[in-house]
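To fix ideas, we close by showing one paired sequence and structure record:
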Amino acid sequence: MTFVLRTAWVFAYCALVVAGNLPTLRALFEFSNQNATASYVLLIPLVTLVLVYQERATIFSDVRIDWPAALPFIVAGAALMVAGFWGQPSMAADLTLRVAAIVLLWIGGFLLFYGQAAARRASFPLVFLLFTIPIPARLLDAGVQVLKHGSTEAVSALFALTGQVYRRDGFVFSLPGVVIEVADECSGIRSSIGLLLTSLLASHVFLRNAWTKSVLILSVLPLAILKNAIRIVSLTLLSIHVDPGFLTGQLHHEGGIVFFALTLAMAFPILVLLRSLEVRRIRPRPLPV
């Protein structure tokens, strides 16, 4: 079987999976439009395709039909699809189940037509494809609480650092002329997910060692908390010393991209440092004379 014909079979298989799950994909489209924390999910398959295409020479250097490797994923995907059939695709829990079924079937198709060796070389794009699955509500809520608690502590530290007088009661800060609360909506969960995805892609593209990739990915949480605290403190101080409208104005509601860019600016030196450490470790040492 030629590679072109093999790839045509893969696309036909994936199209068949899509055709059999159109209600689920329509529900996923509506969910991503209505839920800010899931606005990225429709881009994940496209990013996966781009990654596979960019690394095609390495990934497809050895391909073969591999039923034993593919069958567990295809059976698991079919089982989840049947289990999700009894629910409503518009409900978040059932939608997570049904999208997981689609992703497993896609991965199973890749394994079937290209084989285990190719899938191993394409492990990052295939794992990244899992982000197409909507995050379960309980896991999302847990992330919100971690960010909320961390942001509250960081806000307190920044207020103390700036010398701003305040009184704290849990998540509520009382300052001269204004009272603010670090609520769930202030956790920055959406930008944190975006930062995580960006860091995963950056670590895959620019870093080679497992430890440097891990450091970059682990830096996402403290950077997200610091960014969120800077946003809250900046808006609060601007409202006290410049204009009270900053707490309800455009910067508050639409300034997420500004502070997200700030987070990327803070993450960039970390990436550069980790990359330089990798280069330094592989640089050959001069031989003694």
In short: The two ends are 57 Å apart (CA to CA). Residues 3-133 form one domain. DSSP finds 14 helices and three strands in the chain. The chain has two domains: 3-133, 139-282.
